[in-house]
Design a protein that fits this description.
157 residues, alpha+beta, Alpha-D-Glucose-1,6-Bisphosphate, Chain A, domain 4, seven-stranded antiparallel β-sheet, globular, Carbon monoxide dehydrogenase subunit G, CO_DH_gsu, START-like_dom_sf
Length: 157
C-alpha cells in the first residue's frame, strides 16, 4: 500500500515538530491508540486498536524515527502485530514546510500487511488507511490548539 498527501496545520513549524515528537500528543491524536511510550531517544512502543472492514484487532508494535533533520523531516519506520488478524509494517517520510504561522506537513507512506488483513483487499485497506490519516490530522490539529512544549511529556524527558 502506498499513500501520500499533505495537510496544512495552523501552527509554526517548530511547534508542529515538538508535537509530532511528544508521546502524549501522539497518543491523544492517533485513532484507537491505547498506549504509546517512548523507549529511547528515537523509539516508541504502541498499542493500537483498529478495525479494517470485518477485521478488528489490537496491534502491538514498535516505531523508530530515522533520518532526523529537525525541525524539517524524518522517517517513521515501524511494525505491528495483531495476532490472528495479521501484521502491518512500513515507513512514512514526513516533511514540514513552514509558511509564516502555518506549516504544511507532507507525507509519503509505504506499508505492507499480512494475515487476515491481506485477504480483505487493497481497496478496503487503502480506504481505512486514508480514513485513519484524516482522523489523525483532525485530532492532531484540535489538540495543537493551546499546546505548549512546556506542558508536554517531552519537556520532562
Amino acid at each position: 500500500m502506498d499513500m501520500n498527501g499533505e495537510k496544512v496545520i495552523n501552527a509554526p513549524q517548530a511547534l508542529v515538530w515538538q508535537a509530532l515528537n511528544d508521546p502524549d500528543m501522539l497518543r491523544a491524536s492517533i485513532p484507537g491508540c491505547q498506549e504509546l511510550e517512548r523507549t529511547g531517544e528515537n523509539g516508541f512502543e504502541a498499542t493500537v486498536k483498529a478495525k479494517v472492514g470485518p477485521v478488528s484487532a489490537k496491534f502491538a508494535g514498535v516505531v523508530e524515527l530515522l533520518d532526523i533533520n529537525a525541525p524539517e523531516s524524518y522517517r517513521i519506520s515501524g511494525e505491528g502485530k495483531g495476532g490472528v488478524a495479521g501484521f502491518a509494517s512500513g515507513h512514512a517520510d514526513v516533511k514540514l514546510i513552514p509558511d509564516g504561522d502555518t506549516t504544511t506537513l507532507v507525507y509519503t507512506v509505504n506499508a505492507k500487511v499480512g494475515g487476515k488483513l491481506a485477504q480483505i483487499g487493497s481497496r478496503l485497506i487503502d480506504s481505512a488507511a486514508k480514513k485513519m490519516a484524516n482522523q489523525f490530522f483532525t485530532k492532531f490539529s484540535e489538540n495543537l490548539e493551546g499546546y505548549t512544549p512546556e506542558t508536554s511529556s517531552k519537556a520532562a524527558d
